[in-house]
Amino acid sequence: MADEFRLGWEEWVxxxxxxxxxxxxxxxxxxxxxxxxxxxxxxxxxxxxxxxxFLVHPxxxxxxxxxxxxxxxxxxxxxxxxxxxxxxxxxxxxxLKVGERRWPVELTLTDRGQMAYRMLLGxxxxxxxxxxxxxxxxxxxxxxxxxxxxxxxxxxxxERALRIAVLSREPxxxxxxxxxxxxEKRGHTIEVIDTTRCYMTINSLAPEVHYDxxxxxxxxxxxxxxxxxxxxxxxxxxxxxxxxxxxxxxxxEGIAASRDKLYAHQILARHRIGMPTTxxxxxxxxxxxxIGLVGTAPLIVKLLESTQGKGVVMAETKKAAQSxxxxxxxxxxxxxxxxxxxxxxxxxxxxxxxxxRVVASMKRSAPAGEFRSNLHRGGSAVxxxxxxxxxxxxxxxxxxxKLGLAGVDLLRGSDGPKVLEVNSSPGLEGIEKASGKNVxxxxxxxxxxxxxxxxxxxxxxxxxxxxx
Length: 468
What we know:
Blueprint: E1 5-8, E2 10-15, E3 20-27, E4 35-37, E5 39-44, E6 51-56, E7 65-72, E8 75-80, E9 86-98, E10 101-110, E11 119-121, E12 130-133, H1 152-156, E13 163-167, H2 174-185, E14 189-193, E15 198-201, E16 208-211, E17 214-215, E18 221-224, H3 231-244, E19 247-248, H4 252-259, H5 261-270, E20 278-279, H6 287-294, E21 299-303, E22 312-315, H7 318-330, E23 335-339, E24 347-354, E25 357-365, E26 380-383, H8 388-400, E27 405-413, E28 416-423, H9 429-435, H10 439-451, E29 456-457
Parallel strand pairs: 1-12, 3-11, 4-10, 13-14, 13-18, 18-19
Antiparallel strand pairs: 2-3, 4-11, 5-6, 6-7, 7-29, 8-9, 9-10, 15-16, 16-17, 20-23, 21-22, 21-23, 24-25, 24-27, 25-26, 27-28
Helix pairs in contact: 3-4
């Protein structure tokens, strides 16, 4: 028949939804099920929507090239091979492409590293109208392994599901819930990890992170939501993930620097980024000189460990400033003294910087009788259009701290924008509601671009050279 679709005993096929555009498959009508070469097979995801991820060597004798894949699990069953061995395998479904024809096929996952064919097509995989010609080879158009070279493989790679950890002690907070909601909406597996319950194995060969008695799996990305009270331990956990090679949205160095307000201002000064005039001293004999370095009252006295506007006091007169400074010193607290930017009129600008660009901004206004505009202090927020100078300042500040995600707080001074703070764990609620933007979605856009599995090239690995 002219329209007859024939397959020989070996054919070039593709699994486009797995990012495998070219494979040589053995067509075996004696086998009932089909099999795909896979190794480092790892199930993940919730029990009601389990998934599996694995690596594939698509080219025989090329163990240095591995393609990361993931797919929903449809079953797990025992499969007996032609030599009589029985193996419990994960079963997935994907789209098979042969020539110009496509159809769904069920595949079992097993290590075929010693086989010449990375895929075996059993009789269940063939539509009824298909003709198998066991004495012929490559009845359909031949493909090439060249598609896996250079950047072309990225062009054919599908959107693979990721396994992402959110380090947070507040699973029910708005920010954490949004990260889970948006991530799962995109098909990813999002796991909320209590940072303080992590512990680490530190060695040069196999560093690990453990949690509640078990070693944590390999994550594609980590989103740190580290509270100020656990910064030292939280950054230690992130350093461990960095050592393993996991992509962390914010690195330990940037988080630690942003939390140390004195060091943070020194970083801003080093990069010549505008900020309110700031002074710091340890000796009580320097109180008047300290005030004089900053300027005249009113002044801001700020604890180094302050967050969400707590530990920040405005001294309206020099005498009041002296009293506040003496009180803080009596508590042996470390603090900064800053110039009060009057022209800001109780308002500041929060710029959310992701991946080197401002994705959203809002103006926060202090409530009546209050100079702090933090939303946690009862401030209000509205969307705002920022100037090019403000945008550039926010981007430079985030870059100075090497943060992939940063909330940069600016004051509109008479001589240009002044950075108040660079927040390495900015909340999402206020900025999403004020700007109307899906900020969590924008964050995942960046994570997917950075962390999606790409072809892995390794030295010293062999996919086998047998010809079975």
